[in-house]
Each structure stands twice: as structure tokens, then as C-alpha cells.
Task: inverse folding
């Protein structure tokens, strides 16, 4: 990895590490969001703990953070394709293992969405968005919708003929998201996963 590419990855990681949900939960008087619900800082846990407005702000903030991280990372790397791909993966790593939260964080879905919107473009993301909405609407499992949408994203990128670095970055992000959802997967298999609209543990 060249110095400029490494620099872009570091910058993207640091932007991705900004704990949006953690900050918003504090602003809305929740305190440390990691002490509530699932213990993560993502939109779903903020929704269950703090309500709709904080959750929407968290979602928008994480998506914007992902796109910004890739834009800045690619700018530093001086390479939109390879630099952008590396920055996308780095941004999701930052979100999931934030240096600002002692390497704890979210599950990478919203930040990954923002990053891939920049790397792949909105049309390549649309099928995953549709899958997410349909699955969540029919099952009310946010985790299942997130997993299916994310796993399908590399296949869509490949089918649309996106550059190989972009496809690989999408696959890496999918692996990270699946790994971060290992507890959700176990609960889905056992039938104990929380549905949207229910408090965690209800």
C-alpha cells in the first residue's frame, strides 16, 4: 500500500470512527447508549432506547459520515477507484471499532451504505435498499434485512460491472457486517431476535 493510499485509509477510518449514535444519545439525555439495549451505537439501538427522532438523526449522520469518509479518503489517496474502495472499508472498520470508544462501535450498516453510495453509486445500491425495506416490512427484523441487503451488494456490484476494487471493498464490508451481526444471527436461528417496534429484551 502506497503512503498516499495508507493516508487515505487512516483518514477514512478516523471519520468513520466518529460515534454519531453515541453523541446523539447523549444530546437526548440517554447517557452512554452502550449501557442500553444491544450495547451498540447504531440506529436500531438508538430507536429502541431514545425514540424515532434520535434514530433518524443517527441514521442520517452515519450515512453522511460514510460518504464523507470515502470522499476525503479518496482525495488524500489521489485515486477515486482504488483509494475510494480502501477508504470505504476503512470507514466501516472505524464505525465498528472506533478508537474514540475503546474500539467498540456500531455494526457498519448505515456507514457502509454511505460509503457504498459514493463507491458504487445510488443505482447499484437501490436493489439492496429494496431488499432491506421489503424484509423489514414483512418480518420486522432489522438485522435480517441488513444482512440480506449487505450480502447481496457485492453480487449486484459484480453484475453491474463495477471496478474490481469496488467489488472487493463491497465484499469486505459485507463480511464485516455479517461478523458484527453474529449475535443477531444466533438469535434469529433460535427465534429470540427482537422485532422492530419492541424494546430490546422484551
Result:
Amino acid at each position: 500500500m502506497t503512503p498516499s493510499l495508507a493516508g487515505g485509509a487512516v483518514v477514512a477510518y478516523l471519520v468513520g470512527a466518529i460515534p454519531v449514535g453515541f453523541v446523539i444519545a447523549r444530546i437526548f439525555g440517554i447517557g452512554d447508549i452502550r449501557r442500553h439495549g444491544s450495547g451498540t451505537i447504531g440506529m436500531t439501538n438508538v430507536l429502541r432506547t431514545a425514540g424515532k427522532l434520535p434514530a433518524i438523526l443517527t441514521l442520517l449522520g452515519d450515512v453522511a459520515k460514510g460518504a464523507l469518509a470515502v470522499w476525503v479518503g479518496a482525495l488524500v489517496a489521489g485515486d477515486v477507484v482504488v483509494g475510494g474502495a480502501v477508504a470505504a472499508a476503512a470507514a466501516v472498520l472505524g464505525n465498528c471499532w472506533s478508537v474514540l470508544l475503546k474500539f467498540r462501535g456500531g455494526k457498519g450498516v448505515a456507514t457502509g451504505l454511505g460509503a457504498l453510495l459514493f463507491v458504487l453509486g445510488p443505482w447499484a445500491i437501490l436493489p439492496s435498499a429494496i431488499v432491506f425495506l421489503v424484509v423489514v416490512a414483512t418480518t420486522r427484523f432489522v438485522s435480517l434485512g441488513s444482512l440480506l441487503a449487505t450480502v447481496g451488494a457485492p453480487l449486484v456490484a459484480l453484475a453491474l460491472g463495477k471496478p474490481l476494487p469496488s467489488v472487493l471493498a463491497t465484499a469486505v464490508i459485507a463480511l464485516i457486517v455479517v461478523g458484527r451481526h453474529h449475535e443477531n444471527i444466533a438469535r434469529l436461528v433460535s427465534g429470540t431476535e427482537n422485532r422492530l417496534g419492541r424494546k430490546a429484551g422484551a
Remarks:
- The mean pLDDT is 93.
